[in-house]
Design goal:
The chain has helices at about 10-20, 60-65, 80-100, 125-135, 165-170, 205-215, 240-245, 260-275, 280-295, 305-310, 320-325; strands at about 1-5, 25-30, 45, 50, 70-75, 100-105, 140-145, 150, 180-185, 190, 200-205, 225-230, 235, 255. With about 325 residues, it is of the alpha/beta class. The chain has two domains: about 1-5 and about 45-145, Rossmann fold (3-Layer(aba) Sandwich), CATH 3.40.50; about 145-205 and about 230-305 and about 315-325, UDP-galactose 4-epimerase, domain 1, CATH 3.90.25. Strands 2-1-5-6-7-12 form a six-stranded parallel β-sheet, with helices on both faces. The longest helix has 18 residues, at about 80-100. The protein starts with a strand and ends with a helix. Keywords: NADP, Oxidoreductase. Belongs to the NmrA-type oxidoreductase family. Isoflavone reductase subfamily. Pfam families: NmrA (PF05368).
């Protein structure tokens, strides 16, 4: 089966690709954003996947690259939401022209109801709407993948460790997106709580398991690659994470955050952004909005159906207890 993964190639998605492609009898290709990334022309493969160069602004270029492809999976991450919508619109049109059978737009977030509550995720609703209005009506099986929080954020800030252990702990994660709230090596774990004062549940998945789940999904029979496919390593509260850390001798401060406190942070960050663009404030607002979704703890948001676990029972994802034991 010919499958292509569209990616902007950062360390996280290299881990994803590694897990998705290894031990799989799948012919795969990575189609990078040519305008953003440059590759050594003498080394045109990543993890065994040949690279094709395409123009995401050209449906002719994309259609040519997708000829003979059965499944197209996008993990594009572009900061401009309108560019994401435009690129994916072109991808979907090209899938129709190239007679691609299956398509997945770039989602990789919490449950679908979270999109409207996080500004930088709002465009993902449009991507799925296009799948329903254009893709499915033209005979393409469409699915979106949801993985919740990267479990690996719980290893952010970890001190130097052997390369193999670091790969398991961080899975290629290098950004500092959550460090203000999750920095366990330095005793910090902010616990989202609901309006009753209870720690709210969150679904999370190890980055490596995301690739394993998607590789298994490629082999799903007709009719099952459809709708919102959720994969979950574990669903638990941060209070439970704190308990597991205590069991292995790690102490963290008891600090909580409520939805109202998230709103206060969002207002402060909006004021900063009103004075001028600030990437730190933009990212900070996104995190505060995601934390508010966690505080609410609603099904379809921070917690969602693990439908892909049910469809692919052969995948045995990392549980939070195993992660804490191995990392700490």
């Amino acid at each position: 089966m010919e499958c292509r993964l569209l990616t902007d190639i950062d360390d996280i998605w290299e881990t994803f690709a590694d897990e998705a492609f290894k031990n799989q009898e799948i012919s795969s290709q990575l189609l990078p954003l040519q305008s953003v990334f440059a590759f050594d022309v003498h080394n045109n493969s990543v993890y065994g996947a040949p690279i094709s160069y395409v123009d995401y602004g050209s449906t002719d270029s994309l259609t040519s690259a997708l000829k003979g492809i059965h499944t197209l999976i996008s993990v594009l991450k572009v900061n401009d939401p309108m560019a994401m919508i435009s690129y994916h619109s072109n991808l979907l049109k090209s899938c129709i022209s190239a007679k691609v059978s299956r398509y997945a737009p770039s989602d990789w977030s919490m449950g679908p109801s979270s999109h409207s509550k996080v500004d930088l995720l709002a465009h993902k609703d449009r991507l799925w709407q296009d799948c329903q209005e254009i893709g499915i009506k033209n005979g393409i099986e469409c699915a979106s993948f949801h993985n919740g929080m990267f479990m690996n954020y719980l290893a952010q800030g970890k001190l130097t460790c052997p390369a193999e252990d670091e790969q398991f702990a961080l899975g290629g994660l290098e950004d500092d997106l959550m460090l203000q709230y999750i920095d366990i090596p330095h005793g910090k774990l902010v616990i989202p709580i609901d309006n009753q004062g209870h720690s709210s549940p969150t679904s999370m998945t190890h980055i490596g398991d995301i690739g394993t789940f998607v590789a298994a999904a490629v082999d799903l029979p007709p009719g099952q690659w459809t709708g919102h496919l959720g994969m979950v390593g574990d669903t638990c509260t941060f209070q439970h994470v704190k308990h597991l850390l205590t069991e292995v001798g790690i102490q963290v401060q008891h600090e909580t955050i409520t939805a109202d406190q998230c709103d206060e942070k969002i207002r402060d960050l909006d004021e900063q952004l009103a004075r001028g663009f600030n990437i730190g404030a933009l990212k900070g607002k996104m995190v505060a909005q995601m934390l508010k979704v966690q505080c609410e703890g609603q099904f379809g948001g921070s917690v969602f159906e693990s439908s892909l676990n049910r469809l692919c029972p052969q995948v045995k994802p990392v549980k939070i207890s195993e992660f804490i034991q191995r990392v700490y």
